[in-house]
Structures are given as structure tokens and as C-alpha cells.
Amino acid sequence: MARRGRFAPYLLVLPGGLWLLAFFLIPMTLMASLSLQSGNLIDGFRQTFHWQNYRDGIGVYGGVLARSLGYALAATVACAVLSYPAAHWIAFRAGRHKTRYLFLLVVPYFVSFVLRTFAWRQVLTDDGPLLGPLKDHGLLPTDFRVLDTGFAVIAGLTYNFLPFMALPIYVALERVDRSLPEAARDLYAGRAAAFARVLLPLSLPGVFAGAVLTFVPMAADYVNAEVLGGPDDTMVGGVVRAEYFDNGAYPTASALSFTLMAVLLVAVLAYARALGARNVLGDAA
Amino acid sequence: MAASACGVKGRGKAPDADFWRGKRAAGKLSWANWPGYMQDDQATIKAFERDSGVRVTYREVIEETGPWFGKIQAPLAAHQSIGFDLMVLTNGIQLEKCRRLGYLAPLDHARLPNFEKYAGPGFKNPSFDPGNAFTVPYESGVTGIAYNTRYVKEEITSIAQLFDPKYKGRVGMMSDSQELGSFGVFAVGADPEKSTPDDWRRAAAKLRRQRDDGIVRKYYEQDYVDAVSKGEVWLTMAWSGDVYTMAGPDVAFVVPEEGGTSWTDNLCIPSTAEHPVDALTLMDWLYVPEHNAPLTEFVNYITPVPDTRRIIRADAQKASGKKAKELTRLADSPLVFPNADELARLRRYRRLTQDEEPVYQRAFEPIPRGA
Question: Which chain B residues touch A254 with a CB distance below 8 Å?
Fold first, then answer.
């Protein structure tokens, strides 16, 4: 028994480990190598440690990269602001209907995310069902538009990733011991103070998890920018997709991907540090 | 991917002379095409199935050449089937890549007698595929300007109007770098076919200004049709036939005075096709004028089979009312049967050597990507 027990943890980790090795580590290594190659599709690519790929990629698309991070940040904040009250309400006020409201929160996401984004184009079109009547009544100037603007891209990102913020916050709030905010009130903390000094810090692990789950994929997203954005609202995911799939410019695409990944890693680590490991990992730390 | 890590060998290779040896008809084939390129009831395909007994699986899966190339490149490089025996590729960078990488089956012209007999002179032996070694034309078309007459209150005649600040935020351009680049080159007064890297630089600078001044609302693939029909953009670069088949009644199409780009969409057989003989049969069948006429009546593009015009006129006489008017318009339309003068105003994409391609792409590609 004792011997079997010694190997059990390794055996348990094995399937996941193999999965990560085959579908994460090996592709990553190949991509890292690819990002330093030079050549073209017809003559082939050769490993030349061509660091210029990075310099070229950042030189041409640095602005697009910065914009992607900006949009992702704005949409993350919007997600948090929108979903915290909803999660709070479901956790503390929904009573026995909790599951029903949680279900309602995720129902829209049963429809494909590309379809939902295209549906926005129908609803938000310049003289469509939403803006048309507002313009007819003189509430908006006739050349006002939502589509093909940065606002539309951020709004689309926020909408498409909302549950990834709302659900972790809900879980964190759900775990909070109900007697703690009550104790704060008993000790003469006002509603605001009880929230800011007791409930909010206790729910921060949820906010952190939500922020990571939304910010990282949003920064790399390309569907929202391509469908809802205009020429000045492009995101780096779209560039990588086009370089890789349309042009077969694998080295440039890989170099841009690694740059994005490095920036995201630094951003997430900095965020975790700023919040403090204890807050981030909750009780476990 | 495994191969790419240690450097990928050049895959350019000569066509396989033995390709057709031992290949037999299978009685089925699958065909990848663009939206709007076949009657809604697929009448032409049904007629072919009746005539030949070959069962056709038809899919409209191609919306822009670049992304399509991206999808098929990996399986073709690995000598795997892409699930299609016939596909429609526009002349240009990606077709050139497919040719040079050996991704296309060499055509057996002994089995294409109708192509020989009926293809118009302008459609044989094109510069992008000498001797029609790998492709035969499906339809040709013109890139010009479509505008919505509900919003645009003047006549659109010139590419310069796409740069008019009065249409700020209401202009659509295409994201394909060959289309966008050609219009940029026209706009700076040069000829796309003969353009030099210096012309590309000037054209790119002009297109960039157009974007940064907020004149361009968006860069489109085929979705410009929807945008100009709804009035999201008022004028946009457009493909001739789309405007007739898919756009609303207020949308007009014009070939600008500076000229327009002309391109040819070509039928070709991927080298890994499982049913290449049947694909070849369909290619040849489409060249019989009686078979081609109903297709051209629907798609409104330039057919490679000039004899079709005679049949369309005859159909117009047989038909009545709206349908007759429509067919007469079609038979007289310079966009479907252009005359020599009109053809003289059209230019093809610049043919790019392998060294020129990255220079060209670097000039134009970042523009629709907002960089």
C-alpha cells in the first residue's frame, strides 16, 4: 500500500501532464523556433535566429498591440463593473432562485459567439431597429453611428466575455461567511464601510480570476475587432491570424504571438503582485 | 509543424506528368465555390448531374482568396485531401503560390474539348497560367465602384471620389491587398499592371492618408455588399456581378474613368483531389454554351464562353415582362459582355515576382490592419 501511495500523485498528474506536453509545450517550442526563422512558403523556412522578425513585427504593429491591450483593459473594467452587482445580487438576494438566475446569465452563450457578434451588426446598423427611431425623433444626429468604432469593439468584447467575470465573482461571494459582514455592521461599520473593508477584500480572488479569464483572451481576440471595428480599431489577434493563415508568413505571426504572450504574462504578474498573493489565492495562501 | 521547426524544405516542384495515369471516373465530386456564384436552386449543378450521372456536393466556402489559401495550405503540403475536387481561385498571389508549390493537378486537355472549342480568345493562355496548364476560367469580373443612390446625390465616375473628404466615414475599400493596391495605384495616376515599387509607395501613402483622415469607414471582404445596401457606406469598391445578384435596388455600379481591375476566377483541381476525373468532366461540361447560359444569366459576371450571349438573347425573346427586360439588359451589359474599348480600360493585378511580393505586401497590407 505504502509503495503504491508514493506513486499515486505522479500517476494522477500523468494524463494532464502528457496533454500539456503534447498540446502546449511542444507546439510552443516549435513556435518559438519558428519565430526566429527566415524564408518564405515556396523556398521554405530556415532557422537563422532572425531576431529582426520581432523588431519588424513590433515596428509595424506595435501601435495595434498597444491598442489591443487598451481595449482589453477597458473591457475588463467594464465587465467587472457590470457583473459585480449582478453577482452580488444573485449571491445574497436571489434566495432559492439562484440557479435559475445563474442559468439566465449563461443562456445567451449557448449561441455561437461569432453569430452573436454578427447579430450585433444587424441590431446596431446606422438606420436599424435601434438607431433608426432615435434619429427619426431627433435624439441623435443623423450621421451618428456605433458600428465600426472602438466603442463597438469594447462593447462587443464586454458582452462576449461577461460570464467569465460574473461567475468567478459569484463563486467568491458565495463562499464569504455571511456572519462577517453582519459582524462588521454590529461593530458600527456603515453599509459602505462593511462592503469596502470586509466584503470586497474577501471577494477579490473572484475578481482576480475573472480579470485574468477575461483580459487575456480579450487581448488576443480578433472576431470583435474584425466584425464590429473600423480601420482604426484593429487588434493584434487579427494581424496574427492574417499573417499566419492568409500570407503563410509563419515567422512574423509567431514573433507577434510571442510578443503578445510576453506582454500579457508581465501584465498578469504585475496585477497579481499589486493585489497581493494572499488576496489573489484566497484562503489557500 | 514538426517539419517547420527544423527549417522547411522548399516545396516548389514541377507538375507530375503521370498525374492522370490510372485515374478513373468515380461518379461523384465535391466543389468549393464563392457565395453568389451559382443559382439559388443550383439549377446548373442539377443539370450537370442529370447529364453526366455524377453526384455533386456543392459548398460556398470561399469568401476571400487569402483566408481560403490559409485553410487548404497545410493539408495540401502534407499531400492530404482538402475534401474538395474542384475549387475556384482568383488569379493572383495565392494562385501563383498554389501553382509553384505543386498544389494543383495539371489539366489533361485531351479531356477538355469543349474548352478548346468554346472558350473566348481572351480566356485562353492567360499570363497567370500559360497554356491553361492548371486552370480554366469560371467567370471574370471587374472591380469598380458601387454607390447607394439614396445617399449619393451626384454621379460617381472616378476613383478620386473615393478620396473626397465630403464622404468622410462613408467610403468602403477592400481589404485584399491586390485590390486595394491596384486602386491606390490608379489613384496616383499610374497603371497597376506596369507599376513600380515607387508607385506602390506613393499609392500606399495616399491610401494611408485616406484612412487617417477618417474617409474610410471599413475595409471589406465580400461583406461590402451588405454595408452599401444598408447605407452604412455610401460608396465602396465592389465586384461587378455582386451588385446585380446581391445588392439592393438603390445600388449602382460603375467602372471608373481611371480604369478598373479585372480578374478571373478559375476552376482548378487540387493535387490531392480524390475524384479528379469527374472534376475535369464538370469543367468541360460548363463550357458548352447551352450549359453556361443559365449560370451567366444568374451570376452577371463575364463568361469565358462568348456564344452564351446568343442564347441569352434568345431566352430574352422567349421570356416576358420583367424577366425579358432583365435578360436583354444582361445581353447588352458591358459588364457581362464588355466590348474592346471597355476592355482597354481594364487592368489586371500586377504580376509579382517572388522578390517583389514581400515589398508589395509590406506597402499595402498594414493599411487595412490599422497599422
Answer: none
Q: Which three cell numbers stand for residue A198?
A: 470586509
Across the range B282-302, mean pLDDT stands at 95
Instruction: Collect all residues from B whose CB is shorter than 8 A from any CB in A.
Output: 1-2, 4-12, 64, 66-67, 69-71, 73, 97, 100-101, 169, 211, 216-219, 230-232, 354, 358, 361, 365-371
Residues B349 and B213 in one domain: yes
Q: Checking DSSP bridges between strand B171-174 and strand B216-220, what pairing results, if any? A: parallel
**Residue B352 and residue B315 share a domain:** no
B217 CB neighbours in chain A (<8 A) are 148, 230-231
Q: How confident is the model at residue B9 (pLDDT cuts 50, 70, 90)?
A: very low
Q: How many C-beta atoms lie closer than 10 Å to residue A220's C-beta?
A: 18
How many angstroms away from the CA of A64 is the closest CA of chain B? Answer: 6
Which residues have C-beta within 8 Å of that of residue B286, sequence separation ≥ 6? Answer: B44, B48, B138, B267, B292, B295
Q: Count how many pairs of residues, chain A against chain B, have C-beta atoms within 8 Å.
A: 112
Mean pLDDT of B241-258: 88
Same domain membership, residue B241 and residue B145: yes
CA distances from A215 to A155, A281, B360 (A): 14, 18, 35
- Which residue range is the domain that position B102 belongs to? 25-140+263-331
What's B35's domain CATH number?
3.40.190.10
C-alpha cell at B141: 469580373
Domains of chain A, by residue range, sit at 65-284
B305 and B197 housed in the same domain:
no
Query: Which residues of chain B does A56 touch, with a Cβ-Cβ cutoff of 8 Å?
Result: none
Reported residue count of chain B is 371
Burial zone of A96 (CB within 10 Å; 0-12 exposed, 13-18 middle, 19+ buried) = exposed
- Indicate the number of domains in chain B: 2
Whether residues B220 and B271 fall in one domain? no
Sign of CA dihedral A181, A185, A188, A193: positive
CA B103, B108, B114, B119 torsion: positive or negative?
Answer: positive
Query: Is B266 a residue whose pLDDT tops 90?
Result: yes
Buried b (16+ CB within 10 A) or exposed e, B244-276: bbbbeeebbbbbbebbbbbbbbbbbbbbbbbbb
Arithmetic mean of pLDDT over chain B: 91
B55 and B123: one domain?
yes
Looking at the domain A65-284, which fold is it? Answer: MetI-like fold (1.10.3720)
Q: Distance, in angstroms, between B101 CA and closest chain A CA? A: 6
Nearest CA in chain A to B2: A30
Residues of chain A with confidence (pLDDT) below 50? 284-285
Per-residue pLDDT, averaged over B345-371, amounts to 92
Q: How large is the C-alpha radius of gyration of chain A?
A: 23
| pTM (whole model) above 0.95 | no
Written as nine digits, the cell of A162 is 461577461
A39 dihedral zone (left: phi>0; alpha: psi -120 to 50; beta): left
A3 vs B101, which has greater pLDDT? B101
CB A152 within 8 A of CB A228: yes
What does the pLDDT average to over B67-95?
Answer: 93
pLDDT of residue A3: 62
Which among B8, B103, B359, B367 is the top mutation candidate for probing chain A, defined by the most A β-carbons within 10 Å of its own β-carbon?
B8
Do residue A61 and residue B100 have CB atoms under 8 angstroms apart? no
The C-alpha torsion from B7 through B12 and B14 to B20, rounded to 10°, is 90
Interface residue of A41, A58, A60, A126 to substitute, partner B, most B CBs within 10 Å:
A41
